[in-house]
Amino acid sequence: TNHVPSSEPMKLPPRTSIETFTTFIARAGQLCGADNVSIISKSDKLIDGNYMNPCKGHDMHAIYDREYFLASAIICPREVPEVQALMRLCNEFEIPVWPFSIGRNTGVLDVNVEGAFALVEPGVTFFDLHEYLEEHDLRKDVWLDVPDLGGGSIIGNAVERGVGYTPYGDHWMMHCGLEVVLPNGELVRTGMGALPDPTIPAAEGLRPDQQPGNRCWQLFNYGFGPYNDGIFTQSSLGIVVKMGIWLMPNPGGYQAYMITLPRDEDLAAAMDIIRPLRMQMVLQNVPTLRHILLDAAVQGPKSSYTTKSEPLNDADLDEIARKLDLGRWNFYGAVYGPEPIRNVLLSVIKSSFLAIPGSRFFLPEDRHEANSVLRTRANTLQGIPSVDELKWVDWLPNGAHLFFSPITKISGADAEAQYALTKRRCAEAGLDFIGTFVVGMREMHHIVCIVFDRDDASSRGRARALIRTLVADCAARGWGEYRTHLALMDQIAATYDFNDGAQMKLNERIKDALDPKGILAPGKNGIWPKGYDKATWVI
Ligand code: ADP
């Protein structure tokens, strides 16, 4: 055409002309401020950024080309009514929008010591809330739970059902009360938040999103009637703009520890020790059993250990474990409470694990190496965020990662079978097995960290083929994933197909009812709106 505005995007939204897009962008600028709208234009270079300052328009761990998952523009609404207006605008123009949380707002709305909870906005990261607690001298009262890396959004992480490692490690379990913008722009509060409290004087005359919440909004999750919160996780049914999260009352004492297990086969014995201890809450936190290479990769890249490019064998792994004074498997946990309680718990934990021949027990002060994983975990397990564990991604040059994360039963036989399968497939793909078992209350998230070289097309291709194979292999054994990358959403959703895909049919019906034009995150977790020809969109 003869009309080519300077702001032509690298890629237009589906079914959208350049004229429609240009008008939409102008309207979005009027709503949110022109400075808060940026187009990813044809002349831009796609720069990944880094962990603390990631790109917002494409996948910084791209397993396809960087242009494959690409936004046309990035819009940063400043407050809740702008999020609502933007959703109405997207409906008007039928332009799809994908929400993410980390913007520039850092609204810690409330930290309530008596009730031990916080109320946060999407931009609040684990670092932000931690700093808030420190600045206000609140860690003596309440602790936060953090994932391995602290730069993520608390809301973003909880709605994706991410986990951390204190007793409050299941973030979604510990959320309490949501405020959500629906795809049509309506604003709802869930649970007790749906009940206004007219005795709170400030409530009168304020916008709905500014009204103080019910006193029990962050204390009781369920309210009255159907419990809706779950449909806003891993979904495309709303944008969460406020969330309550329970904080852990300062337990009055704390001790992190590590137990090293020398042999590959010790995995099974360890699991059968872990299950009863965890279920009885002798293991109070979300502990992890980590493969040697995860810890080794935190200490240095593959090239610092070996000149090999092929996957390392048992002898190589034993050599690394010896050099690092670690086991083939390394168990990280913590006990919480005053000293007598800690001593009792630790004595049970020690005597249980030390039944495994060659196992050894360490406290953080026993470790003197640089970048000690135990010393980092000693912070993580008391809710102090860090980025130390980012280092394992550098195992390979230009390192990027994909998580393959099947759920497994806490049992020696199950863990062994899943480990054997994933290890074999990694080796076939020419990649090292790097993994960890993250122990929940009744199950484990088995996290296989697929590290690849993002600038090497062959490495990317092998990582893609590996994860697709693993999804299929595991489904054939009844193992399913808890969360995934955009590229795998369709394949994984299709494995959850009990009774002729009944769950997907339900999800699609809800999607079409709440978002008839399919403008919010179409395809998220494999759910395609009715206006999309699923067969042509599925990857
Ligand atoms: P991370 O970078 O840690 O993955 P994001 O902020 O990108 O975190 O969030 C991950 C995913 O969670 C997003 O792709 C989106 O699907 C969903 N998400 C994040 N924030 C929200 C929110 N406020 N409301 C609804 N979904 C969200």
Description:
It holds the Pfam family FAD_binding_4. InterPro entries: Cytok_DH_C_sf (IPR016170), FAD-bd_oxidored_4_C (IPR004113), FAD-bd_PCMH-like_sf (IPR036318), FAD-bd_PCMH_sub2 (IPR016169), FAD-linked_Oxase-like_C (IPR016164), Oxid_FAD_bind_N (IPR006094), Vanillyl_alc_oxidase_C-sub2 (IPR016171). Keywords: FAD, Flavoprotein, Oxidoreductase. The chain has 539 residues and is α+β, with helices and mostly antiparallel strands. The strands form five sheets. Strands 12, 13, 14, 15, 16, 17, 18 and 19 form an eight-stranded antiparallel beta sheet that branches. A five-stranded antiparallel beta sheet has the order 5-6-10-8-9. It has a two-stranded antiparallel sheet with strand order 1-4. It has 14 helices and 19 strands. Helix 1 runs antiparallel to helix 2, helix 5 crosses helix 10 and helix 10 packs antiparallel against helix 11. It has four domains: 59 residues, no CATH class; 142 residues, Uridine Diphospho-n-acetylenolpyruvylglucosamine Reductase, domain 3 (2-Layer Sandwich), CATH 3.30.465.10; 230 residues, 3-Layer(aba) Sandwich (Vanillyl-alcohol Oxidase, Chain A, domain 3); 47 residues, Vanillyl-alcohol Oxidase, Chain A, domain 4. The structure holds adenosine-5'-diphosphate. Adenosine-5'-diphosphate (ADP) binds next to helix 4 and strand 10. The site of adenosine-5'-diphosphate has 16 residues, from helix 4 and strand 10.
